[in-house]
Structure formats: structure tokens, C-alpha cells
Design brief:
alpha/beta, about 300 residues
């Protein structure tokens, strides 16, 4: 797969051509770029992405430090990753695109919108948290925490209910759980846990996430305050779809975005958690396809 040399890191990416058209480096096609979250890689989107190739050329890529992209020692803030996305689009000669982001990938897109709104046609945010609306993410405030906590403990994870950055912490604990599970065995099935966390990630992905935290400034960059300000986001008038799981720990952000952007369309996936694009793929595909099929006139930025 191709790699783009972008400033201080090598970005691994994959493009899926629009059906019936040849894949060329031009901006004439409808482009869709999908941004994965933390502790995963572009494979998160792979089986979903093909559903959109009847109308769009789809670009997937690995965030810095993830997948097959290189792992520089620093620069893992959402702002820097937004700059990486802009640099990748320039490298691929993509002038504008519809953008999809899950979890931290959506946080990156919010920073991207603040800095480069003219690069975006429309936005899909899937279970995204922003510290503007949700400065802390403590388990005691999570839906269904009272039944999730014993399920975690049964799996060997004791998460402090007052941990301020529990979203990042749980990814780390799940990675450790995967690595201490003997080869050939699987993490015990638990419907609640599997709906909320990426238990299907490979041991390679788990090892890479732990290496990222141990050898780079990623943890410090992630927990610091975001550089976004409300005034920046208020200027964005692009068509926006926000999809969240009913049991998500980031619903506070969803409601904050809905107040900020009256034009935002919010959908809640019943009986779903943070990783609903994987656990409820058809719901995600149907909602995004419908949203992408709406009128393509791009509102002006004020």
C-alpha cells in the first residue's frame, strides 16, 4: 500500500476507487475520507468503506503512530493530526471531501474544520468527544456504569470510577488484557464489553498502542486541553451528521454540538455503545449513505 511522506512522518493510506471510474490523483471525483480513532488503524473502516464506493472515491489512512504509519516521538495533538490530514489531502490533490471520523478521529475533524473549513464538503461524526463540551470523561458518569463496572472487573480490569480520562485509559487496559491472554485463547465473550470496546483488535495493534504511549509524547498530548474555541466552530455551517450509541459515554458532546450547530442532524443508535460502526454496521452504512445522497451544494463560510 502507498505511503505519503508528510513532514515529520510517513503516512500509510489506501484509496478505493469509485465504481466505474479509474483511480487517478485528481479532484474531480466525489471524495470521502474516513478517519479512525485511537488504538486502531484504517482496517477499522475497511469493510464499511466498500459500501460507499458506488458514489465516492474512499480514502483511508493510518494516523501517525498507528497502523503502518511511522511513529514520531512527538506531535499527537488533535490540531497536529488535523494538519496531517490537510497535508495528506494536498499530497493526493484532493481539494475537498466529505469527512467521516469515529471517536478521536472525529475530534481531529473538529480541529480540521476550525482550521481548514474550505477543504470539507460535509461532516459525519461518529461517537465523538470534544473537551469543549466534555472536559472530563469519568466512568461514574457513563450510562450503565453500575453494570459495566462488574463486567470489567470480571475481565480483570479495575477502572477507577473517577478516572478523568477513562476513554483513553480503557483502551490501554483492553490492550494489556489482549496481550496477557494466552496465545490461541480469546478474551472471554461479554456482550456488554464487546459493544463498548474494540475487543477484536489484534495483539499487534494492542502492542503498538502501548508502545505509542510508552515511547512518545502521545499521552501528554492527548490529555492536555484542546486548542479549539467555540467561536471557531460557530463559523462552520457545513452539513453535519452526528451518530452516537445509546449507551455511549460521549453523549454530552453530542448535545453540546447540537446546541452549537442547529443545522446538525443527530441520530442515536439503539442499544449500542461507542463502537457501533462495527457492532451495528448496517445502521451506520444506511445513515451515512442517506446523508451523502442529500444535495451537494456547499454552504458558504461566514
Amino acid at each position: 500500500m502507498p505511503v505519503a511522506n508528510l513532514n515529520d512522518f510517513d503516512c500509510h493510506y489506501l484509496q478505493l476507487e469509485q465504481q466505474g471510474r479509474s483511480l487517478e490523483l485528481n479532484s474531480s471525483e466525489n471524495n470521502l475520507i474516513m478517519v479512525h480513532g485511537l488504538a486502531t488503524n484504517l482496517a477499522f473502516w475497511y469493510h464499511l468503506a466498500h459500501a460507499f464506493t458506488n458514489t465516492h472515491r474512499v480514502t483511508l489512512f493510518d494516523l501517525r503512530g498507528h497502523g503502518k504509519s511511522s511513529m514520531p516521538k512527538s506531535n499527537y495533538t488533535p490540531k497536529q493530526l488535523a494538519d496531517d490530514l490537510k497535508d495528506l489531502m494536498d499530497h493526493l490533490n484532493i481539494k475537498t471531501a466529505s469527512l467521516v471520523g469515529h471517536s478521536f478521529g472525529g475530534t481531529v475533524l473538529l480541529h480540521f474544520l476550525a482550521e481548514y473549513p474550505n477543504y470539507a464538503d460535509r461532516i459525519i461524526l461518529a461517537d465523538v468527544r470534544s473537551k469543549l463540551f466534555q472536559p472530563l470523561q469519568m466512568p461514574c458518569n457513563w450510562p450503565r456504569w453500575s453494570i459495566l463496572q462488574p463486567a470489567l472487573r470480571a475481565a480483570g480490569i479495575d477502572l477507577d470510577e473517577n478516572e478523568p480520562e477513562a476513554g483513553y485509559r480503557i483502551l490501554t487496559e483492553i490492550a494489556k488484557l489482549q496481550l496477557r491472554t494466552p496465545r490461541g485463547q480469546h478474551i472471554p465473550e461479554n456482550q456488554l464489553l464487546s459493544s463498548l470496546f474494540p475487543l477484536g483488535n489484534s495483539t499487534r495493534t494492542a502492542s503498538q498502542w502501548l508502545k505509542l504511549l510508552e515511547t512518545t509524547t502521545a499521552w501528554e498530548d492527548l490529555i492536555k486541553s484542546e486548542s479549539l474555541i467555540i467561536d471557531q466552530l460557530q463559523l462552520v455551517k457545513l452539513p453535519t451528521l452526528a451518530i452516537y450509541g445509546e449507551n455511549s459515554s460521549t453523549l454530552q458532546t453530542a448535545h453540546g454540538l447540537q446546541k452549537l450547530w442547529p443545522h446538525l442532524h443527530l441520530e442515536i443508535v439503539d442499544e449500542a455503545g461507542h463502537f457501533f460502526p462495527v457492532s451495528h454496521p448496517q445502521k451506520f452504512i444506511t445513515s451515512v449513505q442517506k446523508f451523502l445522497s442529500l444535495g451537494t451544494d456547499k454552504p458558504s463560510q461566514t
